[in-house]
Specification:
heterodimer; A: six-stranded mixed β-sheet; 0% helix; B: 112 residues; four-stranded antiparallel β-sheet; globular
Chain lengths: 115, 112
């Protein structure tokens, strides 16, 4: 079965600084990868996803993630963060097996952007 | 489209009381899920329904029951609430199991 590790439970950064939130997964087969964002007192929203094709995927608000098969990683990056990016971020993985495998979520990384 | 809706938004129960959390989706999704979220524990899957007419246990099913009422609706029932069930509960849906999930706004439940 697949699993997901988010290496940092909390990441504090200053506004306009770059940030990287790390995600590693384990799976012996091809995977789908996702990043979700949860703002305070809200549900999770899909931020971006990798299904196939280009290994670099981008969101509409400036985040990007790169699928690295050899490193089994899907790290999330943003070159310059805003106060409004303060949220909890969850990485998730499922296996490409006819849609029979459930999404597995990491435990989340709380990003705090300070002025 | 409303997406995934959950009712109620907040609920306080006494130990031993029962209640049902309601979830509905209008995206014609086949699969639906119930999660609980606790500080430091991430999301834990309680039950899911891969398609209408089927339900399966997730990681933490004890103390809960579910009903897939139709393709749109998936309810979660606590028969005898316990303080350990104090949590935020999220419903989600997806086209198929393993595809991206869409989440509701959550129900904050407190059991005293």
């Amino acid at each position: 079965a697949q699993s997901v590790t988010q290496l940092d439970s909390q990441v504090p950064v200053f506004e306009e600084a770059p940030v990287e939130l790390r995600c590693n997964y384990s799976s012996s087969v091809s995977v789908y990868l996702f990043w979700y964002v949860q703002y305070p007192n809200q549900g999770l929203q899909l931020l971006l996803k990798y299904l196939s094709g280009s290994t670099l995927v981008e969101s509409i608000n400036g985040f990007e993630a790169e699928f690295n098969k050899s490193q089994t990683s899907f790290h999330l990056r943003k070159p310059s963060v805003h106060i409004s990016d303060t949220a909890e971020y969850f990485c998730a993985v499922s296996t490409v097996r006819g849609g029979s495998e459930k999404l597995v979520f990491g435990k989340g990384t709380k990003l705090t952007v300070n002025p | 489209n409303a997406g995934v809706t959950q009712t109620p938004k907040f609920q306080v129960l006494k130990t031993g009381q029962s209640m049902t959390l309601q979830c509905a989706q209008d995206m014609n999704h086949n699969s639906m899920y119930w999660y609980r979220q606790d500080p430091g524990m991430g999301l834990r899957l309680i039950y899911y329904s891969a398609s209408e007419g089927t339900t399966d246990k997730g990681e933490v099913p004890n103390g809960y029951n579910v009903s897939r009422l139709n393709k749109r609706e998936f309810s979660l029932r606590l028969e005898s609430a316990a303080p350990s069930q104090t949590s935020v509960y999220f419903c989600a849906s997806s086209t198929l199991v393993g595809y991206e999930q869409y989440f509701g706004p959550g129900t904050r439940l407190t059991v005293t």
